[in-house]
Amino acid sequence: MSTxxxxxxxxxxxxxxxxxxxxxxxTAYAIAQTVAGADPGSLMTIxxxxxxALSDMYYPAASGTPARHVYTFYDLTTHTSHTWDPSIKPPSxxxxxxxxxxxxxxxxxxTTELTAGIAKGELKPAGNETLSGIPTKVYTGSSQxxxxxxxxxxxDGLVIRAxxxxxxxxxxxxxxxxxxxxxxxxxxxxTLPAYCAPxxxxxxxxxxxxxxxxxxxxxxxxxxYGPGSKNSCSIxxxxxAAKTMAPLNRxxxxxxxxxxxxxxxxPPHYVFGVGEDGTSTYAGGGLHEITNQIRNYTxxxxxxxxxxxxxxxxxxxxxxASVGLIYRQCFAPVTNxxxxxxxxxxxxxxxxWLYAKAGKYATTPxxxxxxxxxxxxxxxxxxxxxLILRQSRRIxxxxxxxxxGETDGKxxxxxxxxxxxxxxxxRLKSCPDTRQGLELLQIHARTKHPEISVLNxxxxxxxxxxxxxxxxxxxxxxxxxxx
Length: 483
Hints:
eleven-stranded antiparallel β-sheet, outer membrane lipoprotein receptor (LolB), chain A, 17% helix, 3 domains, 483 residues
C-alpha cells in the first residue's frame, strides 16, 4: 500500500461531529507515525509548512540492505509531487500529480473526513487513554461489518491511533502516531534536489480531458469513477472523435446491463459472439443489445441506476465487444455522456467516457432531443413512394405498412392511385421534415384523405412522433428497417 494512501484507508472510520465546528487544522507541523504493513522500525514523518509538505519514509537496515530514506515533496498549490531516494546511484527522481489534501496523506484532512460514524452513533465513547504523552478519548464501535477502535486527540482534532478488524479477529493497526510537533519545520526541508528539476509531473486528469475535448477540463467528469449521483436523470450518449469532438459517423453497437450488482457474490458471466467484421452479440446476466435505440449516432438511456455496465462496439474485424462499469452523474435532467475515441482510424485503441457537466458540450442539441430514425434503419427517401408504385408493389407495400393495403375500394387504385401518390411524393420536398418521407406516406394513408395538405401532414407527423405511435417494422422493395 502506498504511503500517501495509508491514512485514506481509514475511510470506514468516523470521528466526532464537533470537529466540524473547530478552527481550521494547522498548516505547520511535524507528525511521525509507524507504517502499517512495513518492516518493524519503519517510520513516516510528514512535515508541512504552508503550501509545502514533505513525506520522509524511513526504512531500517534489513537483510544486508542499509537503512534509507525516501522523500516525497508536495506542492499544495500546483498539486504536483517529486519523489527521490538519495541512496540510489546515479540519482533519479519521479514526478507525479495529486488531486487534493487527502490524496497526499494530510492527517488532519483525513480526520475531517471521518466524522460520520460518531454522528450516526456507530462509534461511542469508551474511556480515556494517554498515548505517547498525548491525552486521547477512545471511541469503539463497528461500521459496515468491521470493528473499529479510535483514539482521538480532541484538543488538536487528530487521530492518534486507529485499529480495525473483522468481528472476533485480531485488530490491525492502521494509524499509530508517535510524535506530534506544531513548531514550523525548517525551510531547508522543502528544497528539491537539483537533479529533480528536469522531471515534470504527468498531465493531470483535467489536463488530459482538456486535451481530448479541446475544452476546459473543469467542464468534464470521468464516468468510470464513482460513486454515482443520488439524483436521477436520463443520459444521452455521444460517440465522438478526440480533439475535434465530431460525431463518429460510422455504424456501432451498444450493449447495457442495468441489473448489475457490485455486491452480488456471484457476478454475471457475459458472452460476446464475434463476427468476421467485428459485429458482436451480447448475452449473460442482464446484458442485452440496444443498438436499435441509436438515433443520429447518439443513444439515450432513460433513468439508469447509480451504476451500470455499458459498452460501445465499433465493429472492427476480429475484435469483439466489451462492457465496463459506468457511474451515473446527473448535471441536468438529460446529461450528456461522451465516448471520446482516441483514434477514429483505429477504434481498438479505445477511448474515455466523459460527462459534460458544464460548457457547450453539456447542452443537448435540438436534433438530439427529438426521436430520430434508428441507426440500423433503412432511411426512406421522399420519392420512395414513386419507386414502389413504378415497381407495381402497391399490394406488398400495403401488407407491410398496414392501412395502406386496404383493397376494399375505399382507396383509389391503379392509374388514379399512381397519379395521386406521385404528386404526393413530389410535394414532400416542401415539408420542413422531409427526412422521413415514408413515415409521411404511412400517415397519409392512415388518414384516408389523399388531398390533405403537406403542412397538415408534417404537423401530423410531429404529433404522432410525440405520442410514440410510429413503431412498426416494414419491408419494402427488399429494404428493411424500423420507423
